Amino acid sequence: MPHSPTRRDCLKGLALLGAGSAIPLAGAQAADISDARLLLGGTLASIQGQFAELAAGVISHTLGLDAPLEITPDIGQDGVRAANLFDANTAPDGSTALIAPGSVLLASLTGDSRVHYDFTRWTPLLTAHTTTVVIARAELHKTLKSRLKGFFHDHPVRLAVSRPTGTELDALLGLTLLGLRPIPVSGFVRTEDALDALANNQVDAVQLLPYTLGVPVEDILAKLPPDTVPLYHTGDLAETSANSIPNFLEAYQQARRRPPEGALYRAWQAVSASTYTALTVALPMLTPPDLVKSWQKACWDAAVDPTVHRWAEKHHFMLAAGDNAAPFLSRATPDIGAILALRRWIAMNTPRWRLGQETRPI
Q1: Taking a C-beta distance cutoff of 8 angstroms, is the pair 209, 130 a contact?
Q2: Could you tell me which residues are beta bridge partners of residue 318?
Q3: DSSP code of 4?
Q4: Cα angle at 99 between 194 and 322, to 5 degrees?
Q5: Residue 170 contacts by C-beta under 8 Å, 6 or more apart in sequence?
Q6: Residue 272 in contact with residue 109, Cβ under 8 Å?
């Protein structure tokens, strides 16, 4: 059995989550996979591409391949095209594994018309997950706290987004559930530009994904624009100085004096999981168990490889391999009622967002 990493290693990059999860045995015989490849949901320069190039050698070795594992990049940036090809053209013979970004999960949840795949049918092998932090003006933070005293008044919040149903949908829906009536302000593809807009009073809130900035979350929070504070976080901030930031559940209970519930909240849970799951490595459903086990062992070996580990630390990822990867895809899979509620909410608010109006709950 592979050497068990320390708790710090788990939290910093290996993250083997879930008590009792099965890790493939180091001595397990690799299945006969003579021609295997990694299909990228993105370019070689993307996060998925970086991981593939670093992990391909380890995966090839563990699978017992005679030649290096082929990496097939996608011309698309968000992975939807590659995911469609994976579902439509990939046989469950262990020859092809997909590396998909979280945007693939998000596009499926929101009912993107380009989506012709079903990620719930994939067999996850490895995930890289991170955290998100929503930053807002201190006035909004005080307004949120004032709910505890019964003095809350609704306040439209200008939220910087790339587009309303992009990665920032996590914050857009989260702020809506908190009652803050967000107005998405589109066009902020780079987080640095969104933070500049927050400093210049062009927006009131920003969602941070630390791996897009390439610096630790503590450094980001230490250099926030004046009069701005972290509102809440999702994912895991353990063993960082930022672990005092409330998570969404805590923020909601402060604001509403009760735990969140309902279909739209369940939809938010899936949207949030899609956002903080930066990438997923998966095989098609119905891949024979011996082939799945061989790929799981290969991905486990990649996760504990020192080079991959350093890359994960640099980008502030935690890696979950083998059976430990499955819960992350499950969290991004809501019930049908939650999916319908999310899509009704998007359909209702899309005309309002185009007019620069505040978001309304269902």
Answers
A1: yes
A2: 129
A3: P
A4: 115
A5: 132, 207, 234, 268, 271, 272, 274, 275
A6: no
**Residue that the structure tokens 């107005």 belong to:** 183
Per-residue pLDDT averaged across 64-77, rounded? Answer: 88
What average pLDDT does range 327-346 have in this prediction? 96
Give the neighbor-by-neighbor strand order of the sheet with 157-160: 182-185, 157-160, 205-208, 131-137, 228-235
Residue 332 to residue 316: CA distance in whole angstroms: 20
Q: Given its phi and psi angles, is residue 97 left (phi above 0), alpha (psi -120 to 50 degrees) or beta?
A: beta
- Residue 239 is predicted with a pLDDT of 59
CB 30 within 8 A of CB 297: yes
Of 99, 83, 133, the C-alpha closest to 275 is 133
Residue 297 has phi, psi (to 5 degrees) of: -65, -40
Q: What are residue 260's phi and psi, to 5 degrees?
A: -70, 150
Task: Specify whether the backbone of 94 is left (phi greater than 0), alpha (psi in -120 to 50) or beta.
Answer: left
Strand pairing report for 96-101 and 277-284 = antiparallel
The answer to whether the beta carbons of residues 40 and 154 sit under 8 Å apart is: no
The number of beta carbons lying within 10 Å of the beta carbon of residue 2 is 15
- Asked if 24 and 293 count as a contact pair (C-beta separation under 8 A), the reply is yes
* d(C-alpha 293, C-alpha 41), whole Å: 23
Q: How many residues in total does the chain contain? A: 362
**Residue 247 carries which DSSP code?**
B
Spatial distance between the Cα atoms of 262 and 82, rounded to a whole number of angstroms: 33
Mean residue pLDDT across the chain: 85
Question: For residues 270 and 16, what is the distance between their CA atoms, to the nearest angstrom?
Answer: 21
Question: Whole-angstrom Cα distance, residue 173 to residue 189?
Answer: 18
Q: What is the four-CA torsion angle of 214, 217, 221, 223, rounded to 10 degrees?
A: -30
Residue 81 pLDDT grade (very low, low, confident, very high; cuts 50, 70, 90): very high
Q: Which residues contact 54 (CB under 8 A, 6 or more apart)?
A: 302, 305, 307, 308, 311
